[in-house]
Amino acid sequence: MSIPRLPEPGPGTTRLRQALLAASFTPEGLRDRLGGPAEAALARGERVPARRALRGADDAPAVLTRLFLLREPVVTRAAEGALPLDAAVEDGWLERDGDEVRATVDVRPYAADPGRDWWIVSDARPGPGAPGSPGRDVVLGAGGASATLAGLTARRPVDRALDLGSGCGVQTLHATTHARSVTATDVNPRALRMTALTLALSGAPAAELREGSLYEPLERGRSAPARPGPSPGPRPGPGPVFSEADRAGGLRDEAESAGFGLIVSNPPFVISPAAPGAGLTYRDGGLAGDELCRRLVAGSAAHLADGGLCQVLANWEHVSGEDWRERVAAWVPPDCDAWIVQREVQDVAEYAELWLRDAGAHRGDPAAYEAAYDAWLAEFAARGTEAVGFGWIAVRRRSGAGHGDHRVEDWPHAVAQPLGDSVWAHFEQRDFLREHDDAALLRARYVLADDVVQEQIGTPGDEDPEHVVLRRRQGMMAARAMDTVGAGFAGSCDGTLPAGTILDAIAQLIGEDAVALRDRSGEWLRPLVEQGFLRPAR
């Protein structure tokens, strides 16, 4: 079977979007129609529960689900009742096959911001080797990594945003809600076409599409041949809305010289033995080890505006005899601040198994699978790689001279997405602490974060607890063990009194020396501010 042609956004695309909305082919509508377990299974690529849920049904939501998610043929008469058939065929969303029609792409409802219904356009999940598959250039839909990065991204209004390695366009789509102009790049021209289709079908503003690897498309300034289609005009829902005149006018020239306010990237970070031009384009970068992630991070400063933020998902090697923290921190440009968070570590055998299964290698010839497995382990052994870390890197370009503040931490604990506000707050908190010595900290006023709760641990009936723990229920969900002085101080912070005044009152209440209490305060006050338990009063 030949590879189906990709749609070309036209007037039929707008009519298709209207039909999807009318049929409640949305995240909430899909969940209601299939049921939670079947909808969740479908997101994992398992289709049997959804087929059972739709058995015998011929309503519009069932027809659309069969066409665009199960990728099954549907009889023409049923399709005519669910969508504008002729227009969808003309624009290339469907192809006729006798008395049936088939979808040329996956179209998946996507949970977006409140008030918005979006759809992600991609290739079918079977991927390489399946009938009609584009092979190594397959473009997968939104997965766990896409959702993680979308939740991590700081959603501040910016003049100009870059989605480096756009794939099916998830991060590009989000960026259009808070950037005046958005540029999307990818080494795979098919991915740029999918990005354009995702934007067009979702009713989002068009992005500038550039083909190439890493930052090369920006340096060349060559636009990709992908066709984004006509601009759909202003979009509904919350968030900043910028006019087409802003997007196309002099503001773009000014932004070009100033750099990007935001760079996001879910790159092909898999550390594999695939040579350049081999492997899967969406995951295998073709560079040795973690070199692609290093280049992405190291090159960010040259393309960021002052104060701009680059947020990247990455894998990194744990190399024998080297501290992984020092290795990864060395990627960061020296004049930038960075927050590097390792969320998981796998030994090299686990890692190889994960990505061999991702490619479906375990379903083929056992001898070929074992040979591929051996090649992965041989590559790791040659590089001295003992394990691989998974996590994210946030880089902020600083205005002014001086070495940046680089924080690297291992955080395998639970977090509460979205984390975008927490990422931006992290840099603000580090700025505040850098500018305030211990004496200045005591002159400042603070407010206890709304999500902080206190836990007391001890034997039932005891007058005093053995431990007091302050815990945050949002963001990184940090927890800190405190003594009664620190806990009492935190609970008294409402922004009205300087910290030193509160400490003096506590010292008088418990009969301790106020000067000694002040001298010790930096040991626990700085961490409380750094992790957002206390915020400087405005």
Order of neighbouring strands in the sheet with most strands: 8-7-6-9-10-12-11-13
Q: What class, by secondary structure content?
A: alpha/beta
Question: What value does the Rg take, in angstroms?
Answer: 26 Å
Number of strands: 19
Q: What is the number of helical segments per DSSP (H or I, 4+ residues)?
A: 23
Question: Span between N and C termini?
Answer: 64 Å
What's the main sheet like?
8 strands, mixed
Average of per-residue pLDDT values: 89
Helix content: 25-40%
Strand content: 15-25%
Shape: globular
**Which residue ranges are poorly predicted, with pLDDT under 50 across at least 5 consecutive positions?**
222-255
Keywords:
19 strands, 22% strand, 8-stranded mixed β-sheet, 538 residues, 23 helices, globular, alpha/beta
